[in-house]
RNA sequence: GGCCCCAUCGUCUAGCGGUUAGGACGUCAGGUUCUCAUCCUGAAAACGGGAGUUCGAUUCUCCCUGGGGUCACCA
């Protein structure tokens, strides 16, 4: 058997959906595990969808996951290596029109395809009628087929845009699927579908078949939603005299509630948050201007069918401090998931190696992946489990690796954070955060207090804060005032986590019955404004002596005279 | 609605005629800890229903039910 060639063939988009990522992953693993090739092809035959450079943003997502294509669009990876290219290009369908035209001409000449001039209105009416009669719609080609060459010439001369339809021949088609087994679609299920649109572009069905043939593809792994389409492709392959391909249709991935995972989930979540917060206008960005212009914002807020641009949505969510559901690979990256974890988890949705094994890397997947272990049932995407996997991976990292990867994430998503903190303090933060972080991002999200100026730090007035500061005898506030003196006695040069812990342990021994918690919590509130942070002595070390003492003073002043 | 596909804990799944139906996440109950989070112990939790086939069905067949996909000049 020759080495397999698989392909991932998305329509152009700025983002790679997790479902698409899983498909790409399986295509990659199948080919690479067998010494074959993994191709990437852009299905941009819909002129309504843009296909400029920006719309290929998902290439970086594939690369980030470690899925480099042997052939396809050219791309320069962050490490400088070049991906893509190849002898079967162009890899954009919009640049392959001549090939499709040639093949369509062959079909027409052989009487296997014909031009049709139905208007959209006629087609809509026919569909509506079928629907009203409770029957599935099938195109009736009798009218178009009855046209004489002269008729066609006349219609074309009138400027009537025509399409080309494939003459399917109304017969049963059996699909052999390596995952689902065989299935036979009865005669009449496939009608005379369009293969060339009025704008001259081929339809998906036609382009796929031609490209898979001309690019040497041997195995088609795609989502199950394409299953019925396979019948069309089989018919086309036969009419064109092409090779037979091996098919495998992958189970779909859904939301936990069974709905489709779509970008709309983000809009929905954000809209709910906006409504819950009673927001009447877009939050402002750093420049003081609204993140979304007022009109757009109101239209979006009031109309569930309107979607916000992806960037705008994340900006607004960020400003509001709400987390949006991750849908695209980029979302998971931004949320601080590790690519190897996402790869691992994605593979587990629809496949498993058996033997109760579920932690593995891409190389392992490549070596073990096979179609006979792909499940047939759709999966619901369980973010909680993904998060647990991410945690495990972070815990398993050595400290140096964690620091490096944390820094890389920060540089990309929280540059201001890195600027203010600087390298030595970032290292302390990393060491303090690693044991308690489920994602790279929460280190930044959870420690904003570390990068705000001392004089703008706000001490929250929550139950938990009041308990830490005002309850007990002596109160946390009392202890805080005294502890400050002990801290002030430590010179800057000795201001380290170990030294601070030693000092505070001594202090607690003398003033809090040895209960370090009595001292730690008021300190935490004083310097972070809240009751949650990494270990307090690490926090104090990161802030430094001056900042620590200043924040304690401000806290003391803010709560002076307050009672529980 | 027609056609096609599917069906094991809440979720992802293992199982390929005989198992105390396994693992993981989550959940619950304890424990450790300066908060949070880790971490440790333990527990509860599934073969959708009905007919067959068989000495024996989670496993094979059929029906029902339920779920999904698809019926475009989108891909």
How would you characterize this protein structure?
By secondary structure, the chain is mostly helical. Among the domains are: 96-250, 3-Layer(aba) Sandwich (Rossmann fold); 397-451, no CATH class; 454-558, Arc Repressor Mutant, subunit A (Orthogonal Bundle). The protein is 47% helix and 9% strand. The chain is built from 25 helices and 13 strands. The chain has helices at 18-32, 58-64, 97-109, 120-132, 142-146, 149-157, 204-214, 229-240, 264-276, 294-302, 310-320, 329-334, 339-348, 362-368, 383-396, 399-413, 415-421, 423-433, 441-445, 463-470, 476-488, 497-511, 516-528, 536-543, 545-558; strands at residues 5-8, 37-40, 72-76, 82-85, 113-116, 163-166, 173-177, 181-185, 194-196, 219-223, 246-250, 253-254, 379-380. A 3-stranded antiparallel sheet has the order 5-6-9. It has a two-stranded parallel sheet with strand order 1-2. The protein has a two-stranded antiparallel ribbon with strand order 3-4. The N and C termini lie far apart (78 Å). The chain binds one RNA strand of 75 nucleotides through helix 4, strand 8, helix 7, strand 13 and helix 15.
List the keywords.
about 575 residues, mainly alpha, Rossmann fold, Arc Repressor Mutant, subunit A, three-stranded antiparallel sheet, two-stranded parallel ribbon, 13 strands, RNA-binding
């Amino acid at each position: 058997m020759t080495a397999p060639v698989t392909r991932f063939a998305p329509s152009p988009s700025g983002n790679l959906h997790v479902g698409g990522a899983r498909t790409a992953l399986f295509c990659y693993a199948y080919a690479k595990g067998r010494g074959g090739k993994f191709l990437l092809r852009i299905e941009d035959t819909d002129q309504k969808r843009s296909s400029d450079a920006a719309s290929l943003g998902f290439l970086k997502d594939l690369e980030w996951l470690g899925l480099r294509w042997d052939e396809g669009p050219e791309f320069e990876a962050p490490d400088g290596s070049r991906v893509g290219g190849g002898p079967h290009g162009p890899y954009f369908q919009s640049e392959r029109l001549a090939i499709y035209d040639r093949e369509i001409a062959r079909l027409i000449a052989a009487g296997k395809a014909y031009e049709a001039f139905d208007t959209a209105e006629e087609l809509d009416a026919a569909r509506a009628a079928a629907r009203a009669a409770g029957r599935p719609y099938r195109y009736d080609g009798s009218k178009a087929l009855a046209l004489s060459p002269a008729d066609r010439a006349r219609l074309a001369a009138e400027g009537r845009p025509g399409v080309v339809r494939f003459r399917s021949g109304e017969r049963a088609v059996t699909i052999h699927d390596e995952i689902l087994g065989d299935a036979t679609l009865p005669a009449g299920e496939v009608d005379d579908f369009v293969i060339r649109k009025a704008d001259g572009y081929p339809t998906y069905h036609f382009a796929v078949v031609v490209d898979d043939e001309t690019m040497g593809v041997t195995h088609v792994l795609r989502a199950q939603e394409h299953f019925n389409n396979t019948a069309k492709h089989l018919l086309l392959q036969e009419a064109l005299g092409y090779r037979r391909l091996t098919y495998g249709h992958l189970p779909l991935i859904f939301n936990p509630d069974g709905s489709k995972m779509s970008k709309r989930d983000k809009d929905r979540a954000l809209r709910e948050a906006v409504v819950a917060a009673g927001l009447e206008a877009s939050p402002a960005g750093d420049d003081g201007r609204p993140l979304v212009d007022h009109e757009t914002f109101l239209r979006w807020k009031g109309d569930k069918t309107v979607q916000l641009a992806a960037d705008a949505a994340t900006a607004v969510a960020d400003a509001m401090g709400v987390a949006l559901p991750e849908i695209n690979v980029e979302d998971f990256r931004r949320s601080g998931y590790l690519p190897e974890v996402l790869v691992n988890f994605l593979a587990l949705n629809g496949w498993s190696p058996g033997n109760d094994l579920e932690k593995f890397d891409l190389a392992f997947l490549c070596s073990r992946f096979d179609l006979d272990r792909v499940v047939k049932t759709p999966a619901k995407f369980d973010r909680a489990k993904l998060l647990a996997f991410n945690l495990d991976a972070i815990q398993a990292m050595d400290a140096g690796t964690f620091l490096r990867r944390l820094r890389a994430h920060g540089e990309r998503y929280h540059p201001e954070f890195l600027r203010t903190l600087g390298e030595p303090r970032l290292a302390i933060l990393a060491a303090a955060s690693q044991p308690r972080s489920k994602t790279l991002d929460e280190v930044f999200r959870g420690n904003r207090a570390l990068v705000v100026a001392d004089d703008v730090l706000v001490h929250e007035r929550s139950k938990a804060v009041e308990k830490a500061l005002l309850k007990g005898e002596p109160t946390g506030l009392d202890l805080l005032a005294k502890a400050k003196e002990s801290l002030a006695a430590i010179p800057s040069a000795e201001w380290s986590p170990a030294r601070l812990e030693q000092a505070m342990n001594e202090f607690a021994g003398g003033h809090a019955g040895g209960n370090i918690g009595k001292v730690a919590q008021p300190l935490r509130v004083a310097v972070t404004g809240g009751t949650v942070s990494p270990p307090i002595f690490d926090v104090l070390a990161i802030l430094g002596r001056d900042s620590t003492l200043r924040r304690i003073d401000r806290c003391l002043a803010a709560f002076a005279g307050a009672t529980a």
